[in-house]
Amino acid sequence: AMGAELTVEVQTPSEPERPPRVAFLDFYRHGDYTAPVEGFDRDETAMVVWVLVLKREGPGPEEAHEVTVVWTTPEGEARWEEVRPAVFDEGRDSLRVIGGKGFTEPGTWPPGRWGVRVLLDGAEAASGVFTIE
User: SS3 helix, strand, coil % of the chain, rounded to 5?
Assistant: First the structure.
């Protein structure tokens, strides 16, 4: 039609969402959270606890993520998988997520170098190792 107005809507691309980053991943003896540990005595260790700290670019609205932690044996086989919610409260820019695995009695862990892979919303985010001696 002649003389009709044509309206064109221009959309500005929004800034892509940036996932939080891993500030650190540490391992602790169950019940002793004073200092991270890289090696555990097999005869004294029943459970190993991991602590993951996530940071985002700044305070914002509530933001939910999912953390999956895969434990691997010294032989490289997947042993356990943990899934934890990771929800930043509104106005917060950091978040601590905690988990752990082990046995009911000390002396059960197979000795060697164990691995832990951390997935954030399904994407590789961090990894760590500890030894059972």
Answer: 0, 55, 45
